[in-house]
Each structure stands twice: as C-alpha cells, then as structure tokens.
Amino acid sequence: MNGKVKGKAKSRFNIGLPGIMEYLAVKILKLAGYAARDNKTRILRHLQLAIRNDEELNKLLSDVIAQGGVLSNIQTVLLPKKA
C-alpha cells in the first residue's frame, strides 16, 4: 500500500472527517450557549469557558488556544451587587 489509502477506505475518510468536524462544532457551540444562558447574555462569548469546563474537549483542544490554560476566577466580593 505504501502509505496510500485506496478504494473504499478512501471514500469513507472523505465522509468521516467533515462529520467529525461538524459534531465538534455543534458540541462546542451548544456548551457555549449554555454558558451564555447561565451568564444571562445573548452573545456566545464563552467558547473557551465551554471548552475548558468539558473534560474531553479540554483534553482534545488543550494546545489549540494560545495561553488559554487558566480560566479567570473573579471573587464574588468583586462582582457588582444585584439590586
């Protein structure tokens, strides 16, 4: 085979990779949507938060986000008080 994919196996790879990428995108956006809902915002700004809080995604994408190893932790005393 000399490292080349032939025949039916080649066509299966062409279908599989886009499916995997779509699955990962949907999972990340769903988790970011939950984080946005929990923080009462309408805009999905919490992609890193969603990835870091999911164990499997964090392991998979740990080297993708540059300098993204630490999530911010804001003390509750510093947050604005709700009236």
TrEMBL record:
What subcellular compartments does it reside in?
Answer: Chromosome; Nucleus
Listed GO molecular functions?
A: DNA binding; protein heterodimerization activity; structural constituent of chromatin
The protein's matches in SUPFAM superfamilies, at most eight in alphabetical order, are given as: Histone-fold
- The answer on whether this UniProt entry bears the keyword Nucleus reads yes
| A single GO cellular-component term on record | nucleosome
Note the InterPro entries from the entry: Histone-fold, Histone_H2A, Histone_H2A_C
Residues in domain Histone H2A C-terminal?
Answer: 55-82
Q: Which SMART domains does the UniProt record give? A: H2A
User: Among its keywords, does the record have Cell wall biogenesis/degradation?
Assistant: no
Q: Which UniProt keywords apply?
A: Chromosome, DNA-binding, Nucleosome core, Nucleus
Q: Which family does it belong to?
A: Belongs to the histone H2A family.
Subunit architecture? The nucleosome is a histone octamer containing two molecules each of H2A, H2B, H3 and H4 assembled in one H3-H4 heterotetramer and two H2A-H2B heterodimers. The octamer wraps approximately 147 bp of DNA.
State the protein's name: Histone H2A
Q: Which organism is it from?
A: Atta colombica
